[in-house]
Amino acid sequence: MDQYEYEPLPTSEHVRLVTIHAGRFDDDIVLSYDIVAFTSNECPSYECLSYTWDEHSGSSLVHVVEKGRARAMHISGNLANILLHLRYADRPRVMWVDALCIDQNNDVEKGPQVARMGKVYRSAHRISIWLGKEENDSTRALNTMLWIGAKVTVDWVRLRVALRPECAVPDFQDIDTGIPLKPEDTEAIYHLCSRRWFERLWVRQEVILNEAQAVVQCGHYQVPWQPFRRGLACLYQKPRSWTPFDEKLNDRLLSLRGLMGQASTVPLGYIRASFGQSDCADPRDRIYALLEFLPEGDRAIVGSPDYTKDVEVIFRDIVWRHIKHYGSLNMLSQCQIDSKLASTVSWTPDWTSKKFIYGRNYWRGFASSHLGAMCAISEDGHMLKTPGASITTVEDLKEISAMDGRHVDVQVEETLRILVPGDVLERRYITGVSLLEAYARTSVANALSENQEPWSKQEPTLKEAQKIVLDALKKQEQEQQRPSEPPSGQTREVYKIMRAMLAGRKLMYGSGGYIGTVPQPTQKSDEICVLLGCHTPMVLRRVRDDVFRIVGECYVLGISEGEALLGPLPDGTRRLFASDPKSGVHSYFVNDRTGYQSLIDPRLQKLPLDLEDFPKQLKEDPNAQIQLKLEQLHSVFPQMREFGII
Q1: CB atoms within 10 A of CB 404
Q2: Which CA distances in Å does 19 have to 120, 169, 234?
Q3: What is the pLDDT of residues 18-36, one digit of tens each?
Q4: How large is the average pLDDT for residues 572-593?
Q5: Lowest-pLDDT range, 92-101, 156-165, 541-550?
Q6: Does residue 254 share a domain with residue 148?
Q7: Are residues 163 and 231 in the same domain?
Q8: What is the pLDDT of residues 335-357, one digit of tens each?
Q9: Is the pLDDT assigned to residue 76 strictly greater than 70?
Q10: Can you tell me whether residue 560 is helix, strand or coil?
Q11: Membrane-crossing residues (predicted)?
Q12: Which of 1, 103, 219, 436 has the most C-beta neighbours closer than 10 Å?
C-alpha cells in the first residue's frame, strides 16, 4: 500500500480536519482529510483532542482514504489507541488532532499552523481530554472530583474557593474543615492527577481557552472539565483527612497550581511563574504554545512561530525586542544562572526551566522607581550594556530548605528559628526599623496587607507577620513537630506566603548591614545591584572588570523599593498597589496624614528633572516610565556606571 503524503495547504488561513470513520473497536482505523478555510466568516464544525504524545509507544498503521483510494499512514501506538476509544460505531467523527492535521515534518508549514492552534481549540464545539485508559480506580477519581466540584465556586484570579448556596454538605461550609474523603478516594485521585497529561504545556491553551466545551475521559468514561477543575482547586485549598497517599497528593497539587489558576491573559514577564512546571518536547514551544495567552503587544514581540531557528536565538531576540518595546529591563527578573541552555547569555530567561518561581516576586519590586531602561546591545548580540549601581556585596549566606511537605506551618516555623537571631528585639536594621520588623518584612518579601495588594487578599499585617516570627522563636526545639491543631485558614495562608517567598532560596547578609532573600546559586562576593529600568534588585557575578553574569533577582529591604537611588519615601507616605483591566497591577502613593494620593513617586519631584508631562502619561498608563537622557543620568545619579552583562 502506498504511503500517504500530505497535500499542501493553499494558504495559512486553511487547516486540515480529519474524519474518523465509523467502526467497531477492533476494526482497522480508517481516516480521511478535508482542507477547509478557517476564517472569522467560515468556521466548520469539528471537535478537538487534547492528549499526551508518546513517541515511545511504537507505531501503528492506519488507512487514509483519498478519492476512493486507501493509503497507509503510520501513527504512534498511543494515538491509535485513543482513536479506537474515540471512534463512533455508527457515524463518522470530524476532529482536529495536531499530530494528524499538521505535517510534523514540514517546519515551514508548522509555524503558521501552530500560530493558529489557539483559535482552532477556541472554536471547537467539543474538546476531548484523553487522560488514558481506565486504571487505578480512575472512574472513582473522576466521580469524586465531579462530586467535589459541584459543591463549590472558584475565584480563579485569586484561586479562592466558596461554597455554592445550594450545597448542604456540612464539611464544605468551613474552609478549615477537611473534605470527607476515604483513603481509596485519595489514592485514586493521586494516581489520576499523576498522569502525564497534567504536565503538558500545550494543554493550557487546548482546554482553558474553551473549557466550557471540554470533557475529561479515561477509557470510555468521561466527566465535564469545569467541575473537575473546581474539584482540584477545592482539594488544594481545603484540608483533607490524613491518608497514606495524602502527602503525595499534596505535592502533586502544589505542582498543579499553575493549571488550576490559569489566567486567560499572561504577559511574557510572568510565563515562567504561570507555565514553568509544564512540559513540552520542543523547547521553542515554551513560547509558541502560549501565544493565545499573551497580550497583543507581547504577541507582536514574539512574532510568528519559526521552527527553523535555534531556541537560544529565539529567546534572545524576544528579550531584546521586549526591552526595546517597553523600555524596561523587568524581564531580567526571570533570569537565573543555573540555566540548562549553557550557550545562552545570562540576560535571557531560560523558559525551558521547570524550577518553580513565585509570580508575586516578579511584579512587586520598585527598585528603579519610574525610571526606564537606557541600554544597548553589542554588535554580536551577546552583551547587554546598561547603567546600574552596585549597592551591597554578599558577605554571608544561610541555606533555606525547599519546604515542600504538607505541614507548611511546621516548616516555616523551623525555618524562621534558623534564620532569625535570638536578639531580634534588641537591635535595629540599617534603615532604622527594628530588626524584628526587618525579618518580618523579609520573610514575606514585604507582601503585607498594608500595601493593598490586589491578589489573594490574604496577606498579613506587619503586626501579624512580626507575631509569627516571635512565636516561632519562642517555641522550644522539642516542640518542632506537627502541632496538635493546625493553623486557621487565614494564618495558614500567611504561612503559604512565607513559604513561597523563602523556600529554596538563601538568606543573604550584605555589606553595610543589609539582609535579603537571594537565589540558591548566590555565592559570597556576588553583588546586589540596581540596574536602571529593572524593578527588582539583581544578584550579579563579576566575570572581569565591569562585565557580569546574572545570578537572579532578589528581595533586599532598603533596596527593593527604590531607596538605593532615591532614598526613603517621605514620612507618612506609602506605596500601595491597584489593578485595572487595562493596565494590570500598578503602584500609587498615599500620604497617611493628608490622604493625598498620587500615581507619581514623590521622591522624583525633588530631582532636577522636567516632569511636567509625566503625571499625564501616568494617567494614561500607570506603568509609564521616564526615559532619561545620558547627560541627565550622570548629573542626577553619579553613582551609576555601565554594566556589561553576558
Answers
A1: 15
A2: 16, 45, 38
A3: 999 999 999 999 999 999 9
A4: 89
A5: 156-165
A6: yes
A7: yes
A8: 988 777 666 799 999 998 877 66
A9: yes
A10: coil
A11: none
A12: 436
Distance separating alpha carbons of residues 412 and 497, to the nearest angstrom: 10
Q: Are 535 and 640 contained in the same domain?
A: yes
Q: Are residues 431 and 309 in the same domain?
A: no
Q: What is the pLDDT, as a whole number, of residue 167?
A: 80
- Side-chain half-sphere of 413: how many Cα atoms within 13 Å? 24
- The domain in which residue 216 lies consists of 131-260
Residue 14, phi then psi, degrees to nearest 5 = -105, 150
What are the φ and ψ backbone dihedral angles of 127, each rounded to 5 degrees?
A: -125, 120
With respect to residue 265, please indicate whether it lies within any of the assigned structural domains: no
Write down the pLDDT at residue 165.
Answer: 82
The verdict on 461 and 518 lying in the same domain is no
Give the position of cell 498503521. 61
Residue 559 CA: distances (Å) to CA of 365, 531, 554, 565: 9, 12, 10, 8
Q: Residue 269 corresponds to which cell in the numbers above?
A: 514577564
- Phi, psi dihedral angles at 432 (to 5 degrees): 105, -15
pLDDT of residue 257: 87
Gyration radius of the chain over CA positions: 27
Confidence at 440, pLDDT banded by 50, 70, 90: very high
323 and 405 co-located in one domain = no
CA of 300: how far to CAs of 166, 188, 521, in Å?
Answer: 45, 43, 34
Q: What is the mean pLDDT of residues 260-288?
A: 89
DSSP conformation letters of 57-123: S-EEEEEEEETTEEEEEEEEHHHHHHHHHH--SSS-EEEE-HHHHS-TT-HHHHHHHHHHHHHHHHH
What are the CA-CA distances from residue 528 to residues 255, 367, 446, 513, 557 (Å)? 30, 11, 18, 13, 12
Q: Are residues 225 and 154 in the same domain?
A: yes
C-alpha cell at 33: 482529510
Q: Which of 218-227, 229-238, 470-479 has the lowest mean pLDDT?
A: 470-479
Average pLDDT over residues 616-645: 94
Instruction: Report the pLDDT value the prediction gives residue 584, as an integer from 0 to 100.
Output: 79
Which of 76, 97, 125 is at the close of a domain? 125
Residue 266 lies in a domain: no
Angle (nearest 5°) at CA 284 between 282 and 289: 90
What nine digits make up the cell of 39?
476564517
Could you list the beta-strand ranges (E) of 307-438.
Answer: 376-377, 384-399
pLDDT tops 80 at residue 40: no
Provide the number of structural domains found in the chain.
5
- What type of residue sits at position 401? S
Same domain as 194, residue 109: no
User: What grid cell was written down for 130?
Assistant: 484523553
Does residue 58 lie within any of the structural domains? yes
Buried b (16+ CB within 10 A) or exposed e, 584-610: bbbbbbbbeeeeeeebbbebbeebebe
Give the residue, 193 or 66, on which the prediction is more confident. 193
Average pLDDT of span 97-123: 93
pLDDT band, residue 539 (cuts 50/70/90): very high
Return the closest-CA partner of residue 189 out of 240, 131, 150, 145.
Answer: 145
Q: Which of 193, 226, 260 is the last residue of a domain?
A: 260
Phi, psi of 238, rounded to the nearest 5 degrees: -95, 150
Please check whether residue 375 lies inside any domain of the structure: yes
pTM (two decimals): 0.85
9 φ/ψ sector (left φ>0, alpha ψ -120 to 50, else beta): beta
C-alpha cell read off for 624: 509609564
Q: Strand 69-76 relative to strand 160-163: parallel, antiparallel, unpaired? A: unpaired
Over range 402-410, report the average pLDDT.
Answer: 82
